TrEMBL record:
Its EC number is 1.1.1.22. One of its GO terms (biological process) is polysaccharide biosynthetic process. This is UDP-glucose 6-dehydrogenase. Residues 309-407 form the UDP-glucose/GDP-mannose dehydrogenase C-terminal domain. PANTHER family: UDP-GLUCOSE 6-DEHYDROGENASE TUAD (PTHR43750:SF3). The active site is at 256 (nucleophile).
Length: 442
């Protein structure tokens, strides 16, 4: 099949490469500077496997890059749109980029027979887009085909999904969509467009709810001296609940969960149906960083002038994405409390905030710090020389915001005089010998 795909953000680019790998002729369209970078294999997103796979399909001629939407979609079977749909400050979804794409086609008076929306859009959007095209004299079906890609494993998620969802109106559209995904083995869920639009939002909202539930229970565990890991593995063993997305920590981040939750809340309000469960999901998440700050204050007393070493900046491991990262909230709150931040991340090289010093190594970030906080569960943080790292600090306090460190490391930590290990939703561990004052690193 010939597919034109507009938008080469992380979803669009992964989709373009994967559809090309499935044997389709794909033209990816974006603005000039982005396309120039892509032609030189310079990617703006960091996703495992993406670079070599892209180089491969580009070299084979299965994937091409263009900047002119009208030209690129003049001789294609379907046009897929994977542009950003950010949430505006009033909670409504900004569909400006999608409208911009369609306006090019309407001006040219031409459109492929099928437009597939991959961007996440509020319920009813595809109906409206199709009506807009029709009003401009274009008889095109608009279908909805959501993505469920996680950053860091987007490739596998695309090629081996749990399910594929098609929201479409006619057998012709369904048949084109099935051809597009031929070669991928997964149950296909075909339904009307509005239901498909809601599947995407409800899935993300449900996952966010699982995380907030685990975080809420972790507070109860802390109060009663229980261990959230045991509680959630016992709960998740029930097949009706499932074990995933029950890890307590510093809260969820990333470009999807908060945005989609907000959008769904607005959707509910528009029809007079508030969604109280989801309001609480967001509220619980918003309390995670204040709780981490409260923990620091419980250790330090006055936080002003203290230095915090933060390990991990991206919203999760295996990505350099800092959108909505809990780190950014932490940074803002540290600034308010007069806490100095030295941070290290294996791949993030800039944050766009002055109030943080980005360091080249975890050890440099730990220099003279009054506590270290793990914000992202990069596995390499568990491999650090923790006794050495603590030796570089002013106070040997470890706040493990992701429950990352294994027992042998925790034992090494609390072997150090005055050390405290504070996980999430589990009892704190501390050295039997109290902290004796500022250590003097060699
Ligand atoms: C998510 C959805 O999983 C994906 O289906 C959708 O298409 C896009 O949004 P992504 O944002 O890449 O994907 O990350 P995900 O792995 O879902 O994690 C989101 C956030 O939740 C991260 O900050 C992560 O650290 C946090 N999280 C996840 C937890 O705090 N606990 C968990 O148990 C799982």
């Amino acid at each position: 099949m010939r597919l034109t795909l507009v938008g080469t953000g992380y979803v669009g680019l992964v989709a373009a490469v994967c559809f090309a790998k499935l044997g389709h002729e794909v033209i990816a369209v974006d603005r000039e500077p982005v396309i120039r970078g892509l032609k030189e294999n310079k990617l703006t997103v960091w996703e495992p496997q993406l670079e070599p796979e892209l180089a491969d399909v580009y070299a084979n001629g299965l994937l091409r890059f263009e900047t002119d939407i009208v030209q690129a979609s003049s001789d294609t079977d379907a046009l897929m749109i994977a542009v950003g749909t950010p949430t505006r400050s009033d909670g409504h979804t900004d569909l400006g980029h999608i409208h911009e794409v369609l306006s090019h086609l309407m001006q040219a008076g031409t459109c492929p027979p099928l437009v597939i929306i991959k961007s996440t859009v509020p319920v009813g959007t595809c109906d409206e887009l199709e009506a807009t095209l029709l009003a401009a004299g274009l008889h095109t079906e608009v279908a909805f085909n959501p993505e469920f890609l996680r950053q860091g494993s987007a490739f596998n998620d695309f090629m081996e999904p749990d399910r594929i969802v098609f929201g479409c109106q006619t057998p012709q559209a369904e048949s084109l969509l099935r051809q597009l995904y031929e070669g991928i083995e997964a149950p296909v869920h075909v339904c009307d467009r509005r239901s498909a639009e809601l599947i995407k939002y409800a899935s993300n909202a449900f996952l966010a709810m699982k995380i907030s539930f685990a975080n809420m229970m972790s507070d109860v565990c802390e109060g009663y001296g229980a261990d959230i890991r045991h509680v959630m593995s016992g709960v998740g063993a029930d097949q009706r609940i499932g074990p995933e997305f029950l890890s307590a920590g510093v809260g969820y981040g990333g470009s999807c969960f908060s945005k989609d939750l907000q959008s769904l809340l607005t959707t509910g309000k528009l029809i007079g149906s508030p969604l109280p469960i989801l309001e609480s999901v967001a509220k619980v998440n918003n309390q995670r960083i204040p709780r981490m700050i409260a923990k620091l204050i419980s250790l330090w007393g006055n936080p002003s002038g203290k230095r915090l070493c933060v390990l991990g900046i991206s919203f999760k491991p295996n990505t350099n994405d800092v959108r909505d990262a809990p780190f950014l909230t932490l940074l803002a709150q540290c600034e308010r409390h007069g806490i100095e931040v030295q941070a290290f991340d294996p791949v993030v090289r800039q944050v766009g905030a002055k109030s943080v010093q980005l360091m080249d190594s975890p050890y440099a970030a730990a220099a003279q710090a009054d506590a270290v906080m793990i914000m992202t569960e990069w596995p390499q943080f568990a491999e650090l020389d923790w006794p050495y790292l603590l030796h570089l600090m002013r106070r040997p306090y470890v706040l493990d915001g992701r429950n990352l460190l294994p027992s042998p490391i925790i034992s090494q930590i609390v072997d150090i005089d005055g050390a405290i290990y504070m996980p999430v939703g589990r009892p704190m561990e501390r050295s039997p010998i109290p902290w004796a004052g500022v250590s003097s690193p060699e």
